[in-house]
């Protein structure tokens, strides 16, 4: 496995675990305060990130499946940005929710970056 492949695998696994943390944040925020749409958006983003991270970490083992990992990274990135905007416009979200969603957006962007680099390497061969 190449260095970019290892980095992609690490980003996929970190997407899985950060997604689990974001789910926990969404549940805790929903239980401790009134269950608003911002907690639901955080929970929804975590529920999108966990299966995407699990599936992409399995797909990252085979270089020919990297285009599917790129799509899953895009899904995580768009979900984190969109649901982060929903949380922001609701106006009641805590800083920890924004940090969790921002981490998911960064991980999704890193998944896109490393998947694109592996795709370019495969095209050169």
Tally of DSSP helical segments: 4
Tell me about the biggest sheet?
none
Class by helix and strand content?
Answer: mainly alpha
Overall domain count: 1
Mean pLDDT: 89
In whole angstroms, the N-to-C terminal distance is 15 Å
Shape: elongated
Architecture overview:
- The structure is a single chain.
- The protein is mainly α and about 120 residues long.
- It has one domain (about 5-125).
- Helices cover about 85% and strands about 0% of the residues.
- It is built from 4 helices and no strands.
- It has helices spanning about 5-30, 35-60, 65-90, 95-125.
- Helix 2 (about 35-60) packs antiparallel against helix 3 and helix 2 runs parallel beside helix 4.
- The protein is elongated.
- It starts with a helix and ends with a helix.
- The mean pLDDT is about 90.
What labels would you give this structure?
125 residues, mainly alpha, 4 helices
Write the layout of secondary structure elements.
Elements: H1 3-32, H2 37-59, H3 66-90, H4 95-124
Helix pairs in contact: 1-2, 1-4, 2-3, 2-4, 3-4
In short:
The chain is an all-alpha fold and 125 residues long. The chain is built from 4 helices and no strands. The chain is elongated.
């Amino acid at each position: 496995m190449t260095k970019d492949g290892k980095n992609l695998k690490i980003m996929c696994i970190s997407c899985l675990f950060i997604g689990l943390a974001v789910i926990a944040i969404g549940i805790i925020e929903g239980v401790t305060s009134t269950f608003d749409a911002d907690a639901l958006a955080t929970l929804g983003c975590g529920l999108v990130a966990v299966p995407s991270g699990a599936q992409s970490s399995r797909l990252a083992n085979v270089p020919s499946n990297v285009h599917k990992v790129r799509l899953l990274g895009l899904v995580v990135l768009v979900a984190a940005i969109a649901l982060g905007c929903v949380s922001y416009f609701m106006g009641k979200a805590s800083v920890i929710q924004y940090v969790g969603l921002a981490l998911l957006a960064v991980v999704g962007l890193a998944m896109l970056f490393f998947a694109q680099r592996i795709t370019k390497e495969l095209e050169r061969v």
